[in-house]
Amino acid sequence: MVEILLAWLATLPAPARPAGLAPDLAPPVHVTADGRPLDVERVGHAAPFVGDFYGDGKPALLVGQFDGGKLRVYRNVGTRTEPKFGAFEWFKASDALGTIEPG
Prior knowledge:
The protein has one helix at 2-10, and strands at 32-33, 36-37, 46-51, 60-65, 71-76, 85-90, 92-93, 96-97. By secondary structure, it is mainly beta. The protein has one domain (2-12, 33-97).
């Protein structure tokens, strides 16, 4: 699934290459969901992962956020080869909010 996301990202117009960026690194890409940049609510870093979480053959985006260890899942409302992420749902374990140890 990561290969699919990388292939899709490669089709986007390349932003200006930041000064000092190593030649083997791709320029950063802004990922949007529901037409807006991803927002993880708090200061800190996010930990994104791509996978077929819904079993529909399309990569969805899982973003773990530093604050509170909460996980957001952004459903792919596009296609397998041209992902487009919709609004997030909180990851749940049974009926409870699923969290991981932050840090």
